[in-house]
Amino acid sequence: MSNATTAAHGDNYLNHEKGLWSWLSTVDHKRIGLMYMATVLTYFLIGGIFALLIRLELLHPTQTIMDANTYNRMFTYHGAIMVFLVVVPAIPTTLGNFLLPMMLGAKDVAFPKLNLASYYVYLAGGLFATASLFLRGADTGWTFYTPYSIRTSGTVILVLTGAFIAGFSSILTGLNFIITIHKLRAPGLTWSRLPLFVWATYATSIIQILATPVLAITLALLVMERVLRIGIFDPAIGGDPVLFQHFFWFYSHPAVYIMILPAFGVVSEVIPVFSRKPIFGYKAIAYSSFAIALIAFIVWGHHMFVSGESEFAAFLFSLITMFVAVPTGVKVFSWVGTMYGGSIRFNAPMLYAFGFLELFTVGGLTGVFLATLAVNVHLTETYFVVAHFHYVMVGGTLMALLAGMHFWFPKMFGKMYSESCARVAWFLILVGFNVTFFPQFILGAQGMPRRYWSYLPEFTLLNQISTVGSWLIAAGFLFTAFYLIKALISGEKAPSNPWNALTLDWQTPSPPPHDNFPVTPIVTDWPYEYRPDGAIVPIQGAAPLPA
Amino acid sequence: MSNNDHSNHPHHNQDHSHHHIVSTKTALTVAGSLFFLTVLTVVVSRVDLGVWNFPVAMLVATVKALLVMMFFMDLIHDAPENSVIFGAGFLFLVIFFILTASDLFFRGNVYVKAGTPLVATSGRSSLKNPWISTPELVSHGKELFSQNCVTCHGPEGLGNGVAAAGYNPPPRNFHSQTGWINGRKPSNIFKTLKEGIPGSGMASFGTLPIDDRWALAAYVVSLNSERPASDTQEDVAKIGYDLKTGLAAGGARQEEKTIPIEFAIERMAVAEPAPAHGALGANERGFTSVGGQLYQARCAQCHGEHGEGGVRVRSLGGMPKAYITTAPLLANRESLKSADAFNHVVENGLTGREMPGSADLSGGELSELYTHVKWLAGQLH
Amino acid sequence: MSSTHESAYPVHHVGHHFNNASDEFEAAKQGMWVFLVTEILMFGGLFVAYGIFRGMYPEMYVEAHHALQMKMGALNTIVLITSSLTMALAVSATQRGKKQRAIGMMAATIFLACCFLVVKYFEYSHKFHEGLLPGAFYSNTEITNPKAPLFFSLYFMMTGLHGIHVLIGIGLISWMILRSLRNEFSENFYTPVELVGFYWHFVDIVWIYLFPLLYLVS
After folding, report:
1. Domain presence at residue C110
2. Does any domain span residue C7?
3. Partner-chain residue, chosen from A216, A229, A230, that has the shortest CB–CB distance to C157
4. Which of C81, C193, C199 to mutate to test the interface with B (most CBs of B within 10 A)?
5. What angle do CA A205, A211, A212 make, to 5 degrees?
6. Whole-number mean pLDDT of chain A?
């Protein structure tokens, strides 16, 4: 029972043990979350540099800085790193690891050693994938479509192995979270009192464990195809190359929801806190996560409308895809409903949540265009698709990650960042993003194909606008890195609950002690009873915080 | 509460009252049942149950798997949520299979709804009793015969067309009275046209509009010196023809799916690599003039955007070749030497070839089209 | 509940984030179930490929499956079911604290698993000898169906992945024997043995489906 007193004396998870080894061998979910964050951000930097180089190459219709083969490798690595190593793990492994046990009032995830193992598995997967860069590299695109991925001379196997291994990390994290949510909720924390971030993480974890194993076997079959020429994807002996696409998208379409669902969770936490209003439609938001997770599994064929799948399947997948818009619309409506009539405070996390709403709505609605069979035939494999999924992945997931990082930064590190700097960076990133990707909608509708190293001269102006936009985003991120690092070093000390939030993670000191809570909290109400005056309704039975 | 003190803590025991232990007797019974089912599935596989062999084998395997799950893995005494979790794995596997199958098992099926602009045929005949021969029907049938049938059946229907030598059994001689597989009545011939004759060179001509098939039937009947008996109500009903609605009932579903020639050609025309002379300035007149627009709408599918030819067209008739290739519209073609020759070919089509007739064009349209094609021909060297 | 043996065994330390050992056990067990779900879907990819191609080329499957030795497959089914039985008995012996019996049953399980692999070895070497190899390496001249290599690709992928699982199972059960010998388990703590048991039964279930799918095509 000495935790409360030690916490008062400044013992927290950051200084509980000291030295590099104490970090590398830690089983504390908070430290693992930070290790993930550092690694994910490193890969984000690498993938981002590739993105900048791609945009730079597209500054002119012909060669600008690299030849076509280099360009092919560049977009392959940009895609593979960003998808498998950044956006898929971004929120669950960083914010999820850090927050999930705290939101549940638990001391750790269910299997702490497994949690550390999945970090190292992830690291190994990333190293495999990036190691191939120093060899010949892969030029298949992140989707590894057969037959090209079987025939190309690149180091495809190494990248496949990397994605295969990283997939296992994703499976183990999902497994860990599901059991944690099932078994480690604090007394009184019923399902209807769970924070929405937990609901979203739960739905994500279900997708992770159901879909990722199929990716594993798909990539294994592709490796076998390259090594043993087993022919399952090879029409020469009766195999079917489109079958690969089915296998691949059975994982990779749900994976899109692995990327976006946790973002929904973050936004669902941020909006009520900064609107000072109870969340509108709690159950609708919670259950729609499950509806999305379920529908996620039955729409994958919409990636294959022009791949030669049967008209019957195309019709079926087009129809079901439309249904995704319903639960997603329910969420957007509930968030807007939460803000309506609230006393909104425009702090950095809320600004990013606004950014999320704008960009995600554009991304989501253009998704409906693409789901429409006839329109898809015109737009598929054009920059319209590129713009669409960047609006969802970057505009959705990354904006939400930034919202979450700004929201929980004080909790994680016990320091405050400069609010004015954060607003400037937000403005740069939001404007830069729209400048970069909105022209790509127009380019795509005009017929500019994606994954091409050159383009027709009439597309020059829009491409140049897009490239300039990418520099704005880069500037925004560099500035963010600058003020956050500055805050880490010399930021003001953060109070335990700077935003007056009600979820359990805020009912403990900043940074939290090693065991998260001085005493196990007892929950008596849902965490969304916000009032306009900013007062905290004393609930949740948490022990009085140390001064 | 704290667990810091690990020694002699009462909570360290797994609570036996909550945890069920599989008894040796149960385990042995289950294993015995599994052995029995293994023998059973081997024995059953030796019996020919037709399509049921596979479901039975899967059923036995599933019973075995359930026994293992329920008793060896003790799911029946476990928390129900664990059964839900494990069952979800199988459920999503089934979803994975069904939706993948919705593609691979349905490849190549084309769904065309009746009444869309692409469809020239419909399930309804415009004639009241199309199985009763009229002079108009016979003369229309004769025209169609010359375009669709002569290659194999010969110009007089003696079964001696140029391609006849390649077929065994040989094409039918319409003048003989015996050996008609489906019979000789108009309804019988209609059936043959619709379905073809499996095992012979007679393909289905179900792609022809329904009235055209009746016309052909009337013409074929007229060739024979000895008229067959008239069609009775039963005969007509047998080919699925509803007397009241004029719809090909029963067959109506299949009729819905028939592919009109234009649509089929559009689907099957595969562009060869473009000719070397590249852009011919189609924009200059190709899309602006009346003739250019007509050409784009009616001719370009097969003859190519610029009349360059080389477009592969699926041979839809009884030709032995799977594809024919159009020739370039060069100025020295016989049909381009005079407006009359051109009009004749365009209006009537080329007998025995894939060139269809377009008799609906007005004189003015024909002359515009001629001018345009001449212009195209002038561009080709 | 406290057994008299308790002092004889090293006490398993309950994780600091669990309330009690029972919660920890239930969490670990459910974790195993979730893990097995991922296994279902990983094998599932192969089963889906199998089903799709069976639907596309039913005659080829019938023709190609004659090259498999049904008796060997049936023998292996019996062997694996028996090993499942011994594993189930090993688990209940551990739960009752009967260490010697548990170790004996686990050793029997390993022995049966090795028998399975030996039979599999003979089957494989027969296929290698006959040129019944996956994909491009197929060189058999008796089964002439041009799609037949596909069947053997699937055969080797499915039985191969299953075989890898058997090997891992042998490793895991050996580790359980080692831990039993070190007196780590008692009627109060047997989670790892039970979970390895689940894993082994799952390997059995996969084979229960593989046997009719590969050896009994008709």
Report:
1. yes
2. no
3. A230
4. C81
5. 85
6. 91
Q: Are residues B234 and B174 in the same domain?
A: yes
Numbered residues of chain C with Cβ closer than 8 Å to any chain A Cβ: 15-18, 23, 26-28, 30-31, 34-35, 37-46, 48-49, 52-53, 56-57, 60, 134-137, 146-147, 149-150, 153-154, 156-157, 161
Residues 176-215 in C contacting B (C-alpha not used; CB under 8 Å): 187-191, 197-198, 201-202, 204-205, 208-209, 211-213
Least confidently predicted of B65-69, B174-178, C41-45, C201-205: B174-178
CB neighbours of A144 closer than 8 A, spacing ≥ 6? A156, A159, A160, A219, A222, A244, A248
Burial readout C53-64 (b: 16 or more C-beta within 10 A, e: otherwise): bbebbeebbebb
Predicted confidence (pLDDT) per residue in A46-80, tens digit: 999 999 999 999 999 988 899 988 999 999 999 99
Whole-number Cα distances in Å, A348 to A345, A395, A520, B231: 9, 16, 31, 85
Q: Does B2 touch chain A (CB under 8 A)?
A: yes
CB proximity list for B57: less than 8 A, separation 6 or greater: B41, B44, B45, C212, C213, C216
Token pair, residue B113, equals 């709804």
In the numeric block, the tokens 């790892």 are attached to C192
Q: How close is the nearest chain B Cα to the Cα of A2, in Å?
A: 10
- The pLDDT of residue B286: 59
Chains with at least 3 CB pairs less than 8 angstroms from chain C: A, B
- Contact, A95 vs A160, CB < 8 A? no
Angle at B250 between CA B249 and CA B254, to 5 degrees: 100
What domains sit in chain A, N to C, each tagged with a CATH number?
27-506 (1.20.210.10)
Residue A308 contacts B where some CB pair is shorter than 8 Å? yes
For the record, the structure tokens of C126 come out as: 């027969």
Residue A89, C-beta contacts closer than 8 angstroms, at least 6 positions apart: A36, A40, A122, A166, A169, A170, A173
Does residue B94 sit at the A interface (CB-CB below 8 Å)? no
pLDDT tens-digit readout, B121-149: 445 566 777 788 888 888 888 888 888 88
A275 vs A260: CA distance, rounded Å = 22
Q: Which pLDDT belongs to residue B242?
A: 59
CB A179 within 8 A of CB C27: yes
By the 10 Å C-beta count (0-12 exposed, 13-18 middle, 19+ buried), B196 is classed as middle
Q: Which residues of A157-176 are buried (b: 16+ CB within 10 A; e: fewer)?
A: bbbbbbbbbbbbbbbbbbbb
Mutate: best of A311, A373, A516, partner B, most B CBs <10 A? A311
pLDDT, tens only, B325-367 = 677 887 778 888 888 888 888 887 776 566 767 777 888 888 8
Query: What gap in Å lies between CA A444 and CA A466, rounded to an integer?
Result: 13
Do A161 and A128 meet the contact criterion of CB atoms below 8 Å apart? yes
- Residue B210's pLDDT band, with cuts at 50, 70 and 90, is confident
For residue B322, the enclosing domain spans 269-379
| A309 in contact with B, Cβ within 8 Å | yes
SS (H, E, C) A261-326: HHHHHHHHHHHHHHHCCCCCCHHHHHHHHHHHHHHHCCCHHHHCCCCCCCHHHHHHHHHHHHHHHH
| Judgement on whether residues B361 and B317 belong to the same structural domain of the protein | yes
The contacts of residue C123 (CB under 8 Å, 6+ apart) are C68, C69, C72, C73
What residues 103-122 of chain B have any CB closer than 8 A to a CB of chain A? 103-111
Q: For the domain that residue C210 is a member of, what is the CATH number?
A: 1.20.120.80
- The first and second tokens of residue A9, run together, are 């004396």
Residue B342 shares a structural domain with residue B300 = yes
**Chain B residues whose beta carbon lies within 8 Å of the beta carbon of residue C91:** 22
pLDDT above 70 coverage of chain B, percent: 70
Q: Is the residue at C102 inside a domain?
A: yes
Nearest CB neighbour to B103, from listed A214, A297, A301: A301
